[in-house]
Amino acid sequence: MPLPYDLCARLQNAFRARHRFVAVDHSTQNLGILSILFRAGFLSNITRGTISSPSPSDFERVGEAQRRIWAELKYRDDRPLLSHMSLISMPSRRVFMDLGEIRRLCSGRRAQTMKPLGMGEIAVVRTKKKEHEWLEAREALLLGIPGEVICRAR
């Protein structure tokens, strides 16, 4: 399973280099994090494809090693909407939060070692529930599901 820091680094580098598309490995983790970024408005489009192109029809015909998720990056006035994406929970230090800590984080107060979320900033939470495995922190709070805080983006 690829680690989330690879996705964070790829997205930041693609935005800084002013790319229109970025291709990442196809996994449920990458698809979950990218869909949260898409719903938050940091990405224009997400599609499945191959190494060479974002083509959903070719996606079904190639092997697992050739499959990619293509994300179209979003810019406003020639400036990237995603300016910073950082990893919170690392393999050496996992950051699990209960509902009270997620509530503090979302309401502008410090939780554990994390600074509060600012305006337009999101935090990605991985939960134990399979139907809601990847959520934004505010969604996790509304659904009442605690979990591991993976990364934050602004």
How would you describe this protein?
Helix content is 29%, strand content 29%. With 154 residues, the chain is an alpha+beta fold. Strands 6, 7, 8, 9 and 10 form a five-stranded antiparallel β-sheet that branches. Strands 1-3-2 form a three-stranded antiparallel β-sheet. It is globular, with a radius of gyration of 16 Å. The two termini are 25 Å apart.
Summary?
The protein has 154 residues and is an alpha+beta fold.
Unreliable stretches: none
Q: First CA to last CA: what distance?
A: 25 Å
Biggest sheet overview: 5 strands, antiparallel
Whole-number mean pLDDT: 95
Number of helices: 5
Shape: globular
Structural class: alpha+beta
Q: Could you tell me the strand content as a percent range?
A: 25-35%
Radius of gyration (CA) equals: 16 Å
Helix content range of the residues, please? 25-40%
Count of individual beta strands: 10
Order of helices and strands: HEHEHEEEEEHEEHE
SSE map:
Elements: H1 4-16, E1 21-25, H2 28-40, E2 43-50, H3 56-59, E3 67-73, E4 75-76, E5 79-80, E6 85-87, E7 96-97, H4 99-106, E8 122-126, E9 134-136, H5 137-143, E10 147-153
Antiparallel strand pairs: 1-3, 2-3, 4-5, 6-10, 7-10, 8-9, 8-10
Characteristics of this structure?
three-stranded antiparallel sheet, single chain, 5 helices, five-stranded antiparallel sheet, alpha+beta, globular, 154 residues
